[in-house]
Amino acid sequence: MSDDYQPSAFYFTVMFGATLGLADTSFKEVSGISAELETETVIEGGENRYVHTLPTHYKSRSLQLKRGLASTSSPLVKWCISVFEGDFVRPILAQPLVVCLMNADGLPIRSWSFANAYPVKWEVEAFGSEKNEVAIENITLSYNYSNRLT
């Protein structure tokens, strides 16, 4: 595939450090891949035409993963259960995560890594008697920082 074409957004993979991408990594949607700098405004004495905007620190958003409702044997579900139902008896296990956008040959053409990711929200979308859709779960992950790898 030539780099002249914009990549498609529908062929992607998610790999967790604990599973190495071998299991439980099929998702309907991944969102929240972004980076942002927090800034502060500094007014310079004697200069009234403008203010300086200076960077203060890196701010990361949460990463959201959407997929069909998985069984309790899923490694990702087990991880979420240990975080949300573990009563903080054991420390939360953070792990690396990589999201890859793939080309038609199944090779990564863009990828992002997320350091020390762990679940902060686990939600099941609303059920409806008039719907004919797959039940969807949303998992929101916090992470320390991200890097674009390719």
Structure overview:
Helices cover 7% and strands 45% of the residues. With 150 residues, the chain is mainly beta. The chain has a single domain (12-148), classed as Beta Barrel (Elongation Factor Tu (Ef-tu), domain 3). Strands 1, 2, 5, 6, 7, 8 and 9 form a seven-stranded antiparallel β-sheet that branches. Strands 3-4 form a two-stranded antiparallel sheet. Strand 6 (95-102) and strand 7 (108-124) form a beta hairpin. The longest helix is centred in the middle third of the chain and has 10 residues, at 75-84. The chain is globular, with a radius of gyration of 20 Å. GO terms for molecular function: structural molecule activity. It comes from Massilia violaceinigra. InterPro entries: CHP02241, Phage_T4_Gp19. This is Phage tail protein.
Tell me the layout of helices and strands.
Blueprint lengths: L11 E5 L12 E3 L3 E8 L9 E9 L2 E6 L6 H10 L10 E8 L5 E17 L11 E7 L2 E4 L2
Antiparallel strand pairs: 1-6, 2-5, 3-4, 5-8, 6-7, 7-8, 7-9
Q: Percent helix among the residues? A: under 10%
Helix count equals 1
Number of strands: 9
CATH class: Mainly Beta
- Mean pLDDT metric: 87
Number of domains: 1
Report the β-strand fraction as a percent range. 35-45%
Uncertain runs:
none
- CATH topology annotation: Elongation Factor Tu (Ef-tu), domain 3
Radius of gyration: 20 Å
- The end-to-end distance, rounded to whole angstroms, is 15 Å
Largest sheet: 7 strands, antiparallel
Shape: globular
How do the helices and strands follow one another from N- to C-terminus?
Answer: EEEEEHEEEE
CATH architecture: Beta Barrel
Pfam family, one: Phage_T4_gp19
InterPro entries: CHP02241, Phage_T4_Gp19
Organism: Massilia violaceinigra
Protein name: Phage tail protein
